[in-house]
Model the fold of this input.
Amino acid sequence: MEGTSNKPKRNGPTKNNQCWICGELLDQPVKGRLRLTCSDACRQARSRFLKGKPSRKFNRQKKLVEKRRSKPFVERRFDRTFFEPVFELNAWRKVYECLACGQPYLVERMKNGNPARPYCSDKCEAKSKRHWDKFLDAYERAHQRGELDRRVEERFWYDKLSPLCPRCGKPFAPNTTLHGKPQRGRPRKYCSPACRKEAYEQRWKNRHGGVRGHRYALCVNCGDKFDRTDERGCRTKRFCNLACQHQFRDRAYRARKRMGLKAFIWGRSGHRMAALNSPKNKAKTTHP
Done:
């Protein structure tokens, strides 16, 4: 038949003409260099092996182990029911992972009825006990007040801690899933925007020695809340609009006329009487 070659098939340098990595039977080309591997993946795996580099499977397993050990303390599960060794060297030498820090530690002893210690050191055990005592106390107080979050309760039954608000001490659920996968957004530090705002105000007061001047204030005349920043960004405005400003100044002018004042002194030239007769103060003094 035309187009067929009568040349015998070539045998490669490997045993039984098989792939150097996976052992698959090779189809050697008629001309050219003999093949040692069946694919590019096996060729790269052979190159890594000859250079002493770890394989891709080993790297994937290493990443999973490092990810498991690098979990934060709050995202660790303190479940001792199925606490098993991660590796067994022999019958009396086994490797465990600490429940608190995730680092491996070796336990050397013969098999007996007592379970292995779930912590690598006294420091990790004391740290776990301290955090669990604080969390259980805050958990009970929030439960009695009726402020317990459902997600916090779900994490508790899953043997996981929940962070405590540094402002009020209330437990709250972090922005992660039950299995520790982070969600969108920055990690939460406070239980609510109110606690976050109070903490910010306290830091400002400690740093500057006084209360922070807020951007929004109440109008001196009508009492409505408005933005008191001017075009330069300074918090200098006292009135929400020109109408309130003119009404206040007219009352101050009439008060100065009644008192017989000729010189204008800011804050004392009828301003007290004008503030007392403002609509916001009159609304407070009127009785139904």
In short: The chain has a mean pLDDT of 85. Strands lie at 87-88, 93-97, 104-108, 216-218, 225-227.
